[in-house]
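Same chain as my last thread, 383 residues:
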Amino acid sequence: MKALTGIKVIDFSKWLPGQYCGMVLGDFGADVIKVETPAGDDTRRFFPEALPGMSYWHLALNRNKRGITADIKTEGGRKLLLRLLSEADVFLEGFRPGYLARYGLDYATVREINPQLVYCSITGFGQTGSYRHKPAHDLNVIGLAGLNSLDDVGSACVSEVQIAALGSSMNAVSGILLALLARERTGEGQAVDINLYNTSLSLQTTGISSLWGCKATGCQPFGRTAHYYNIYRTQDGRYLSVGTIEPKFWRRLCEILGCEELIERQHDFEHGNELQERLAAVFQTKTQAEWLALIGEEEFCVTPVCSLEEALNSELTQQSEMLAQKQEDIGTLQYVKPAIRLSDMPGSIERRAPLLGEHTAEVLTELGYTEPEIMKLKETGAI
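reply #2:
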C-alpha cells in the first residue's frame, strides 16, 4: 500500500515537465499509464540510448509507468483515450492550448464524461494571453522571466538544471494532489493550469519582493551576491562556495584567511567590490584542497563547488540514500530515488520505463476491448 495506490493517471505528456510529474506520482503508487503516439516520444531517442528507443532520459523519467500507444488523429485512437479518461482520476497533458480541443479531448468535453477527473495542463505560457501559442523550452522561458540573469552585473548562463520545467513538474504534482484532496470533499474534479513562465516568476518571490521593497524605500538593490556570500576561485582553478552570512561565520572566515582587519567590515556595502576583490586575491593563493585542509571539520558555511561526478561519489550522497541500482530485463539500471520521504508509505521504484507500446494489449483488455477489436485498432493505425 502506497500513498497513491488506487489512483489512475493518464500521462499524455511528451516532455520533461509532464514526464517528471508522472514519475513522482508513479513512485508513490499511482497506476500511471503513459500514452504515446505509435512513433513514440522524441525523448525516447535522446542521446545516449541504452537500447534503440530507450534513452537514459526515458528510463529515468518514465519508470513506474505502463506504456501504451494511441493516435488521437484516428477515430479509434480518440475513442480509446476517451475510454481511458472515463475511468481515470488524473489526466496529465503538455500540449499548447487548443490542440486537444481539435480532437474533443479538452477539459470541458472530457468533464462531461468524467466530472471527477483532475485535468492537469502544463504549458509554456498558460491558457490565455498573447504568448499562449508560442513555442518555448526552458531556456527561453527563464530568459523572458529574468531568471537566467544569474549575477548582479547581468551575466547569463545555461544551467544544467531545467529550472522552469522541473519547478513546473513539482507545481503540477502539488496542484494534482490539492485537486484530489478537494475532490474528497466535493466529489468533483477540476482543471489544474500550470505554466513554466508563472513558475519562473514564483521561484523569484524573494528577489521580486526585495526589488519592490527597494523601489518603495529608495534603497539600493542588494542582489544575490556580496563579499561574504559568493563563489571564489582557488589557485588550482577550482571553486569554494562562501556563505558566511552570520557574523560569527564571517569572523571565522576572516581569521582563516588572515584578514582579521575585515571582521568589522562585513556590512560595508559601500566598498563591497573592493572587499570582494581582496578576498578573491587571498583565495587565489592556495588550492581548493589546501583551503579545505585549513578549514578541517569547522562549520562556517565554506564548502567546495563539486562537479556532478564528485557529488555523486561523495560521502554526502552515499548517506542520502538517493541512488539506487536495479537489475532489469534490459540490463542493470541506475536511478535517482524520490526526494520526498514519507515515514509510513515511502515512494519506490518498482517498474522500469516501458518499451514503446509494451502494455497496450494489457491496458486495452482491462478496458474491455476484445482481441479482435485490438487487432482492428492495430490494422487502422490507431495504436
